[in-house]
């Protein structure tokens, strides 16, 4: 049965490329072929492509459409262009999925922005399987929107994990960071920048309170590719310039200093964001005053002050873990040329090397729980993280569900996401 399902799924998503005389890019074709999406104007056999919602066609033909998922306080503003997330069920397989509806008005202006977005979608559709990258299963296009169907994750955000856990073993921290680097390494190797790496965009595939072995229980997945930029296309940078200014993309508290100075995004910019995540993971507090970073000007001022005064790398318990401290320091270099510039180099850092053998040895002994390790650091406890919760994520307690599990967490102006 499973084999038959796989065959049906492949037949459903994949279409044969028609002869040149019969190819069409008109809006009444269910399968939308784009000359610009594939170099050489040839679609490899079996390649997944964006599917066109033709006139009169509805997504409800293919999916049971469920309730809207709330992902942040701003959703209450009922923005007409903000992405909408819904639970859905595939009518053919009965599998739960998540649907993200993205208005074309959010894309960079002009035809090049639309072409690049289509190229990005088809690239994500045809990614090789990776346990640390959210699986994009289908993309549909209408006159006004794109509809991105992804796998459904149930483990909750890394953000929620940081708020909940009071003690996090060092090995768990290593395992978390290694998976983040692995996901970003794959993106970078495919000439893609994520540009919005933060705890809210990193999810656990399975519930962390389950009885699963450690690798499955703490398996992480990088999500939310709306902000991705392809760096292997000729016009990748020019479409980022609007009215003479570079578009800011991401979340203020996690933007690298050079981005706020108007420089282009690079792999090193993603590394800075991961450095922020590592610092929070190891200390329970942000390395800079995120509560004061509510726009580009204020964010630049905060980072300028931090560069002048220095980031506190002696914050306990980070200081107790010299290798983790060294990695964090090298990720959070204000000079991007001195920063660890890519995920491959980060994975070669001594703090992460040898993790597999350590984990395998412990896994043979017993399931690993938060209280099992003698080598552990204090996470966001009641005393230490009260400031973390308030200062990093603001005074409000607006409910927000992650787009795959519906769980809630506090967001804030200090971690405000920029427009796409």
From TrEMBL:
It comes from Amblyomma aureolatum. Residues 370-420 are annotated as: Disordered. It holds the Pfam family Pkinase. This is Protein kinase domain-containing protein. One of its GO terms (biological process) is mitotic DNA damage checkpoint signaling. Residues 47-352 form the Protein kinase domain. One of its GO terms (molecular function) is ATP binding. GO terms for cellular component: cytoplasm; nucleus. It comes from the Eukaryota. InterPro entries: Kinase-like_dom_sf (IPR011009), Prot_kinase_dom (IPR000719), Ser/Thr_kinase_AS (IPR008271).
